[in-house]
Amino acid sequence: MNVRMSFLSWDVRKARIIVLVVAALAFFAKMALAASTRGPADVRFFQGFAQAIAQAGPVRIYGEPLPHLPVYNHPPLASWMLLGMEKLMGFGVPFPPMIRFPACLADFLTVLLVFEIVRRRGTVRTATLCALGAALCPVLAATSGYHGNTDSVAVMFAFAAAYLLTDRGRPLAAGVAAALCISVKFVPVVAVPLLFVAAWRAGRPALLRFTAGFTALFAAVWGPVIATVPAGLKANVLEYAGGNFSFWGLVQFARWAEVPERYIGMVRGDGHYLIIAAIVSVGAWLAWRRPADTPVAVAVTLGSLLLLSTASGVQYLAWPAAGLFVIGLWQGLAYALVVGSVTTSVYGMQRPVHWTDTEMAFGALGWAVLGVCVATGVRRILTAARTAAPADVDIARPRVEPSAASPASSGASSSSGASSSGSSAD
Predict the structure, then answer these.
(1) I want to staple 294 with a disulfide (CB 3.0 to 4.6 A). Which of 39, 150, 166, 393 is the partner?
(2) Which domain of life is it from (predicted)?
(3) What does the alpha-carbon distance between residue 17 and residue 10 come to, in Å, rounded to a whole number?
């Protein structure tokens, strides 16, 4: 028995090494792309934001007019990050690769999270393939290595929060990660309620620790801005509705169908709050039904947000890219291949806000693929909730479903899952 356990544990360690090496190679490839390209206009805008923050400060920036720049819609932690980058520029560090470094590093960490999350719910083989798929995903290569922005960083913290809460039983750290995810980019706010629901389902001590971690970090990062320039923060960050471009999703479909602009304006205005409320409600419901699959619920929620978004941005396509590999291997690969072709094309021609008819067609196909993937994620959670044993309520030790693998591989998965809470077998 000891020999068999040692062999199975070595399999996990070997898989981790493979994933780590490929993720590192992908990281360096993205950084090479970042160092050899100028990037889109956002790179120039971020540099302008960094210079403005150096003048006004990371708190007062929300109350300052920026006549030659877009709306500064980034949360307070991004302001501190840009201030640090502006200081590094003074030492000769070039800004274009520097602004894309956080997204590239976040992708590296997300790949490791995908492996750990999936292996606790399936086989080591499946987890390895899903992690490698996330590492080599062309959507993330293009959005992180070329575009930059902070979308991938926020997604990484969202999955870190789910992993720490559900698989590691560390609600305090999970609460900190949950606050970090919305402090970098406000987009993952749709996943925060379901994390609170999962913490609630874990018991009162877990909920209190999660809340304490979240509140402490949120107060430290957001508190000074809320106290100083609340109106600017509300207008620029909390109420930001996205750009006016239309090449993805509901708004584009409505225009193809020649829906009157006044109705489209209603959906893009106050109507988008109803969409967000529905997404949040479904995510919280899924976390309540199956707290052990909270990471999958996060993936479904981020995918649903892009699916039903009323704003278009090529970098937005990164929101569900890694999470779909948490839902399943074919889901992640299908999205990576179809949507990856779009991102590679539009970034390769350096015109992210102008899509050709062919790119629009592939974008529509990618939207449909995303819809199917999100639906399978919902179905997976609900099916597991119906068939789960009572012990599965313990979210720190999710049970590996027997149907996820053959008898031999199920043994390997169960062994690795049993050691997920920090045993020496890992």
Answers:
(1) 166
(2) Bacteria
(3) 10
**Is 110:152 a contact under the CB 8 Å cutoff?**
yes
CA distance 373 to 403: 20
Angle at 361 between CA 357 and CA 364, to 5 degrees: 135
Q: To which residue do tokens 């997404």 refer?
A: 279
For 269, the token pair is 């205005």
State the amino acid at position 132 in one-letter form: L
Give the model confidence (pLDDT) of 302-317 as tens digits: 999 999 988 878 889 9
The two tokens of residue 132 are: 């490698």
Cα–Cα dist 27/192, whole Å: 28
Residue 238 is predicted with a pLDDT of 87
**Mean pLDDT of all residues belonging to the chain:** 87
Q: pLDDT category, 422, cuts 50, 70, 90? A: very low
H helix intervals, 149-260: 151-166, 171-184, 192-201, 204-228, 230-233, 250-256
Sign, CA torsion 412/321/277/61? positive
Among 156, 148, 187, 152, residue whose Cα is nearest residue 352: 148
